[in-house]
Amino acid sequence: MAKRGKKYRASLEKVDVNKQYVLQDAVDLVKKTTYCKFNATVNLAVNLGVDPRQADQNVRGAVPLPHGLGKSVRIIVFAKGEKATAAKSLDSVIEVGGDELAAKIQGGWLDFDQVVATPDMMGVVGKLGKVLGPRGLMPNPKLGTVTVDVTKAVNELRAGRTEYRVDKAGIVHCPVGKVDFEAVKLAENIKAVVDALVKAKPATAKGTYLKKIGVSSTMSPGVKVDPAPFRL
Fold first, then answer.
1. CA 25 → CA 22, 187, 211, 226, distances in Å?
2. Which residues 6+ apart lie within 8 Å of 160 measured at CB?
3. Burial of residue 209, with CB atoms counted within 10 A of its CB: 0-12 exposed, 13-18 middle, 19 or more buried
4. Looking at residues 171-179, what average pLDDT do you find?
5. Greater confidence, 101 or 71?
6. From residue 73, how far is each of 109, 115, 154, 160, 170 by CA, in Å?
7. 3 pLDDT exceeds 80?
8. For the whole model, what pTM was predicted?
9. Which of 67, 76, 191, 203 has the highest Cβ tally under 10 A?
10. Cβ–Cβ contacts within 10 Å for residue 85, how many?
11. 77 or 38: whose pLDDT is higher?
């Protein structure tokens, strides 16, 4: 294992690694122990009591954050007719189209952060699976990015939302804001995500569902959060 730097070790001394902190205290500690010079991203990790190998336990979704993610979003929309006209007037939408937009992406253009599509355009978008899929940009009905309500989808993406998906180890990792957010706003963002995960609990999940919760920034030690208040 690589040796940790002096700043990291100094930050780690402020954290009781055996303690599960209440959410607000955990967030305060993450802010205090972040030592990088840039505005770091705050990340949430939740260990769920699910078996991701089972299709009905593959927890995945997206949740609007009360205070956003603290970054601007460039959105493209695949739509036609009235839906395309409406999309062109929305803030953060940089391109709207169909076959010509797909051709532009196939030609190497990837200067966007999110993709929204109406259901009738998925035949066009589906051809971009090998380009968009590996980058996590493929529109998906479960994430609300394949929809007839383009305005709602764009507004949610622009306001700030986070996507979650359980990995092979049963852990969800997702960003919840920036370290310069007020601690109470970070806590409210985190609560929104954990509440969404609780609502997404598969009916077939057995035993303890919320096993562990941790919060950290891009460059800070992880801080354990007491999951008890979130459990049903």
1. 6, 9, 19, 10
2. 64, 65, 67, 68, 69, 70, 71, 73
3. buried
4. 93
5. 101
6. 16, 10, 10, 8, 29
7. no
8. 0.77
9. 76
10. 11
11. 77
